[in-house]
Amino acid sequence: MSFSNPLYRLYERRLLAALSPQEVPRHVGVILDGNRRWAKEAGESAATGHKAGADKISEVLRWSEEVGVEVVTLWMLSTDNLARPPAEVRQLVGIIEQAVDRLAATGLWRIQVVGALDLLPYATTERLLEAEKRTAGIDGLHVNVAVGYGGRREIADAVRSLLAEKARDGVSIEQLAQTLDVEHIAEHLYTRGQPDPDLVIRTSGEQRLSGFLLWQSVHTEYYFCEAYWPAFRRVDFLRALRSYADRERRLGR
């Protein structure tokens, strides 16, 4: 079926109409996977794939706003990605910088950078944090851009931050060991104060988490989509939400 076909548009509208506001996830995480494979199949460069993926982001944020999602976390660059050839990493980081600048320039969304920023070039960190600062007062969709992000690194950073805080307060390791609970660590995560993700979507057909929001996703629902990220469509997004709405969430009970 052609996606410009009236029947396709009707199907899309029916998916949207079937969503109850009570069934919409508050927080959606997205693993933006498949840029390079999309480009390879199109006979294009990896950089072209990354640029096409960056262009897709604002569409997905608009779709999220449309249905009432409150927080979206976009995994744009992992700690593992930083081990790719230096030339590709430089290109990818530059594309991310431009993409985050464009998101901030809309004035629509509040940007928050999450990740191990010390792993990034200093100029990149400054540029990303400037975008975060410019959007801090926006009362709209909260968008976490996960750059230089790894789930294990986040937990390690949270523990280091907790230990440093307690040391400043004069608390010994022995005292901390007696009182430590999960909430103490949660208060030092990159996403502290935010709801945990209800739904994580991964594109490109890969069915693994790769450490995304490792701590926060203990009760998260997952949706794996065959489409590469640059080819991700509104109907794919709505199908993910329908799948989420159809599930019985036990939340560990």
How would you describe this structure to a colleague?
The protein is an alpha/beta fold. The protein has a single domain (25-245), classed as Decaprenyl diphosphate synthase-like (Undecaprenyl pyrophosphate synthetase, 3-Layer(aba) Sandwich), CATH 3.40.1180.10. 46% of the residues lie in helices and 13% in strands. It has helices spanning 6-17, 35-41, 46-67, 86-105, 122-134, 151-168, 173-179, 182-186, 234-246, and strands at residues 27-31, 71-78, 110-114, 142-149, 199-202, 221-224. Strands 3-4-2-1-5-6 form a six-stranded parallel sheet, sandwiched between helices. The chain is globular, with a radius of gyration of 19 Å. The relative contact order is 0.18.
Question: Secondary structure elements and their pairing?
Answer:
Blueprint: H1 6-17, E1 27-31, H2 35-41, H3 46-67, E2 71-78, H4 86-105, E3 110-114, H5 122-134, E4 142-149, H6 151-168, H7 173-179, H8 182-186, E5 199-202, E6 221-224, H9 234-246
Parallel strand pairs: 1-2, 1-5, 2-4, 3-4, 5-6
Helix pairs in contact: 1-9, 2-3, 3-4, 4-5
Features of the shown structure:
single chain, 253 residues, alpha/beta, Undecaprenyl pyrophosphate synthetase, 46% helix
